[in-house]
Amino acid sequence: MAWIYALLIFAAGAIVGAFAARLGNKSLKQQKELKKDLDKSKYELEQYRQELVDHFACSSELLDNIAKDYSKLYEHMAKTSTELMPNLPDQDNPFARRISTLEPVAETGNVQNQPRDYANGATGLLRDEPEKVEEPKAS
């Protein structure tokens, strides 16, 4: 009879243990899904931040170009206003106040130092002198 009680207690314990494990697995499964969603959200947020940084870098460069172009235009207008209308009184010239304070706009790309996309003279098959090929010395 003791064996029967022991088997019944063991069976009841196994059922209770299986039920507890099943409940624990659901919460563990939910935790894993939440962790996966969190990692995905973090990755998407980092991508969005990088796109935002790239956007502002590009915008900054474009605004810098606009400012340089505007300065060049203003400088051009100021110089040509004095050249084309030398007898115009200073009070009638809208650029007269700023002509003395203008600073030349610095060019970022120096045209003289840029690499050429061509070679000097003929090269390859079209050159007049045959190419000298050195033979390896036998030792």
UniProtKB/TrEMBL annotation:
Record keywords, A-Z: Cell cycle, Cell division, Cell inner membrane, Cell membrane, Cell shape, Membrane, Transmembrane, Transmembrane helix
GO biological process: cell division; regulation of cell shape
GO cellular component terms attached to this protein's record: plasma membrane
Coiled-coil positions: none
Cited Pfam families: ZapG-like
Residue ranges with Basic and acidic residues bias: 126-139
InterPro entries: ZapG-like
Family: Belongs to the ZapG family.
Protein name: Z-ring associated protein G
Organism of this sequence: Photobacterium chitinilyticum
